[in-house]
Amino acid sequence: MALLFDYDSVKYSPNNALALAYCAKWAYLDAPLAQAEVSKQLQTNKFQFVNIQSSGTQAFVAGDSHKIIVSFRGTEPSKLQDILSDIRLMQVYHALGNVHGGFIRSLDAAWREIFTIIRQFQDNNQTIWFTGHSLGAALATLGVAKMLEFSYPVSGLYNFGQPRVGDKKFAESMNKEMAKRYFRFVNNNDVVPRVPLRTIGYADCGYFLYFDKAKILYDDLSIWTRLLDNFHGRLEALGEKGTDGINDHNMDAYIAGISKNMDKLVK
């Protein structure tokens, strides 16, 4: 059965959360397979894959007469540990605030091509949506920031396992400009949303949505309740292959969480 998409939604939509979570997953596929999935499940008739070999930046843009979706590929699971231990921390200037230098360089390498495709696809005033998982979520956030910088409207940003992208000013700017249109999902002990550290000048942004170890979705979870749930999640993961923080980063875990909470309404 095809996925539903509320293309004119002005608030959180479980249908859009699930559809964009799948788009974040499909961004890891080769272009023909990604196109087949998107066109089948979301009835899109426009598709273009972007692959910048020099920077390793990959994304697809898909669309139809109602919507345009931009989905960035994230960190390959086999390389995640290397990324966490060798992340570039230097911030650089952006109009909305300072941002992670490595992330913005990756986006800049592909942005002209991506933005050109968006403009080519937008022939019916379609709504525009961004998504990504892991590094892809960081690039999606910066892509939306680029759109905002030039007053180009974005209807929604749904991110999964997103690392921190910029400083407090950047976070405040994004939260103001994308209020209740930018949703940041974190699955239990997922380690990636905890880097880069706040202590070196990074801040969280987006409307925080959290899955506990039982995949129950919360949008008003206190920090102490979350820490306790993290602890229980780590206890249950003892003896499992890999670490809980890495396992919880898996995109399939996010899809499972959203699927379990399709009746959940956020504030």
From TrEMBL:
Lineage, broadest ranks: Bacteria, Bacillati, Cyanobacteriota, Cyanophyceae, Pseudanabaenales
Organism the protein comes from: Pseudanabaena yagii GIHE-NHR1
Annotated Pfam families: Lipase_3
The name this protein goes by in its record: Lipase family protein
PANTHER family the UniProt entry points to: ALPHA/BETA-HYDROLASES SUPERFAMILY PROTEIN (PTHR46086), TRIACYLGLYCEROL LIPASE OBL1 (PTHR46086:SF3)
Record CDD domains: Lipase_3
Superkingdom: Bacteria
UniProt domain Fungal lipase-type: residue ranges: 69-198
SUPFAM superfamilies recorded: alpha/beta-Hydrolases (SSF53474)
Entries under Gene3D superfamilies matching the protein: alpha/beta hydrolase (3.40.50.1820)
